[in-house]
Amino acid sequence: MEPWEAPVRLLPLPLPPVHGEVFGWYLHRLAAANQVTAGQLAKTLTPFKNAQVGKRTDTLWRWTPMVLPRLAALTGLTPETLRMLLPAIARVEARTAGDVVRYRRRLYVACSHCMHRRGITRPVLAHRPADLQLCRRHGIWVDGNRHYRVGHLPELVSAEHRHRRIARRFPDTLEAATKEAQHLVCSWLHNKNQPHLLSRWNDRLAQLPPKEAIYGNIIRRRVDERDYIATYPEFVTLLGMLADPAWRTLRAPRRWANLSQHRRTINAVYAEAEHRLNVPTLREKLHSHTFSNDALFRWTDPLGRSLMLVMTPDDHDALRDELQQK
Questions:
Q1: pTM greater than the 0.90 cutoff
Q2: Could you please report the per-residue DSSP string of 256-296?
């Protein structure tokens, strides 16, 4: 009899998974607590002999839905609970049913203080919802390989609340708008073209604590998370605008576009962003060629249609003069 055909018994220490935990990470925690190997547990759950489960194993391409009832018997948890807590289980069932499964590897290390409350002393790798950036209970930034303490910056906590409301309101456009809003704030921060915002961000950077415990061997980031923390409130403010379909439709190419329409569109977008961000102006260097390279200008007109409609230097100046007057 193969291991996956034998009856399953409840483990001596049936640890429950953390919400969103990576399947391989959970299986290794469960195995260590019960003094067995993750491979031994895997062979009792899936019908193939060479089941190799690393800590980051989460796609489970060769696994079958029988993993759910057998894991429920091992842990004493209901199938509904395991399906809710372990995203890999839901993907196995969806793939078996023929549904299209999109795997998004947005991972984070769970707050160590929250884990200690549950008796877990080692890091836990889990899937992060798009709107989770910090642990509000302990004021710790969890989106990165260093868990900075940011509870003394109330604007970050407020931004987290707004982020969750935006995610619930605009689920269909959230992913694209998130990338666009991150590009906007990163461009303004690094190019130093928005002095009103730059002063805010520098103030926040000065208030961030020294580097905290690092999880670089678990989570790797290609950007400086301190910069992301400093710009997070403005990022959320812009996200609420960029994710709104009413504003996104202004970017749709129109067959019979003209320069005047583009002037009004660009002016409306800048006026709305200035109002939401509470800054006097975002239209720096209007009479410079660099204005057309501004990140918000390029978001409004990603194909450069405004500039293609400009036939003479006078038209080019008219576009900027009209924006400045309004």
A1: no
A2: T--HHHHHHHHHHHHHHHHHHHT-S-S-TTTTSGGGGG-HH
